[in-house]
Amino acid sequence: MDCFTAALRSALVFFLVNLFVVRCDITDGNAEHLKREHSLIKPYQGVGSSPSSQWDFSGSTLVTSSYVRLTPDERSKQGSVWNTVPCHLKDWEMHVQFKVHGSGKKNLHGDGIAVWYTKDRLHPGPVFGSQDQFFGLAIFLDTFRNDLHGMDRSFPYISAMVNNGTVTYDHGKDGRSSELGGCSAEIRNREHDTYLAIRYSKGRLTIMVDVEDKNEWKECIDIGGVRLPTGYFFGASAVTGDLSDNHDIISMKLYQLMVEHTAEEENLDWTKIEPSVSLLKSPKDNIDDPTGNFRGTPLTGWKIFLLLLCALLGIVVCAVVGAVVFQKRQERNKRFY
């Protein structure tokens, strides 16, 4: 029993250490690694249609000195803002400060914001103001529920999707069939600043939010096996339909992560990588899954320990049962002599 207790204590310590690493792994915004050519910062002097501009916009987007408003609180609007410089970083982290607000009451507002890292830019379309069947990564901040049967989650809802140009975003199901994971977050009509962090490093995608005015990140999505190429563009878009909201981008700041790669990884042509997610079933395989449970993640240390512990207990139980059965048979055989 003492050994068992010690093992449990060791597992608990291991779990807490891993949790601490996850919490502290998000960059503190060190200006040293801020990539200004990929960052959208007040007073937005680099935004425009001139050849020297690093950001361009389309649709209903309004650029002021305090915010970039993708849509006003009006019906049937869509707008976007896109970086004109392709990103060639292998490991990066994007911090987005945003604000979603409007006069609509509960459940009478829409539709939300999307943050993109995609092959193409400035292509208006039906997915939060941008094109469907895209190549790359999308993070959706969805404020309106379309699937009235999906009552197991509350809105607003944040989700992630990786696409290689073959998968269609299912509006009717709020993207369940293609999402990698997600979380609910109260992001609308907040009196304080709201933030989203997107980290991609060594094949791992981590999404964090800071929407409670506590100055701390809360994990939303953490998934491995994600492959994204270099040379894609960052952007943000938003759309309104019969219901509306103001969708504002305050800033988008991209940080380079200093990560070591193997010689094989360094020699790889990262521009030729096809966006994909391994260790998971394909989004296409998930289309017929009514629950949309496309959220598996690689086993972490504490999960592996629990599986080994369960396996060990199973072996012990089988051994005890086998010993009892063997003893009973021996006693029965003795009675025959």
UniProtKB/TrEMBL annotation:
Keywords assigned: Disulfide bond, Glycoprotein, Golgi apparatus, Lectin, Membrane, Metal-binding, Signal, Transmembrane, Transmembrane helix
Biological process annotations from GO: endoplasmic reticulum to Golgi vesicle-mediated transport
Q: Which residues cross the membrane?
A: 304-326
Q: Which GO terms describe its cellular component?
A: COPII-coated ER to Golgi transport vesicle; endoplasmic reticulum membrane; endoplasmic reticulum-Golgi intermediate compartment; Golgi membrane
Where's it found, cell-wise? Endomembrane system; Golgi apparatus membrane
Q: How does it sit in the membrane?
A: Single-pass type I membrane protein; Single-pass membrane protein
Instruction: Quote the Gene3D superfamilies the UniProt record gives.
Output: 2.60.120.200
Gene Ontology molecular function: D-mannose binding; metal ion binding
Q: Which Pfam families match?
A: Lectin_leg-like (PF03388)
Q: Domain of life, per the record?
A: Eukaryota
Q: Residue span of the signal peptide, if any?
A: 1-24
Q: Using the record's annotation, list all stretches that form the L-type lectin-like domain.
A: 32-257
PANTHER family registered for this protein in UniProt: VESICULAR INTEGRAL-MEMBRANE PROTEIN VIP36, VESICULAR MANNOSE-BINDING LECTIN
Please state what the protein is called.
Answer: Lectin, mannose-binding 2
User: In which organism is this protein found?
Assistant: Oryzias sinensis (Chinese medaka)
